[in-house]
Design goal:
Layout (H helix, E strand, L loop, with lengths): L11 H42 L17 H12 L7 E10 L2 E10 L2 E8 L5 E6 L1
Antiparallel strand pairs: 1-2, 2-3, 3-4
Length: about 130
């Protein structure tokens, strides 16, 4: 270990350089601390936003026993109503859904450059909604 020699005097230039290094180091430390705090705050804000953007949707179960017609029968009903053959239709969606507490088949298909959308009551087979665009 080196002992400091109190008898050595530092020149004005050395003192100035040491002070400059000390100040610069201190400024860099402060800058780093501010940067890390701002990154931390931004991360907390982003994670808070993500939590607030999540919307809870209630789960609804549909008993298949409530559905008296099959998906194929619902498809036949939609095609007959539209006057389209099955080979001419490009089906995009056939699913059993719950709308206003009622089991409904949602059917979408494209034929002759038009989009057809149906909601068909799964119990009775009646058409609840029909759109052609």
């Amino acid at each position: 270990m080196k002992k400091k020699n109190k008898n050595l005097k530092k020149s004005y230039g050395e003192k100035k350089m040491i002070n400059k290094i000390k100040k610069r180091g201190f400024n860099n430390t402060i800058t780093l601390i501010i940067f890390l705090l701002s990154v931390n705050l931004m991360a907390k804000e982003i994670s808070g936003m993500a939590k607030n953007d999540i919307k809870l949707v209630p789960m609804v179960s549909i008993k298949t026993s409530d559905a008296q017609i099959t998906p194929n029968r619902a498809k036949e009903i939609a095609l007959a109503h539209a006057g389209i053959s099955e080979s001419a239709a490009n089906f995009k969606q056939i699913k059993l859904d719950n709308k206003s507490g009622k089991a409904v088949y949602v059917i979408e298909f494209i034929a002759n450059k038009l989009r057809y959308e149906f909601d068909i009551d799964a119990s009775s087979g009646s058409i609840i909604k029909f759109e052609k665009r």
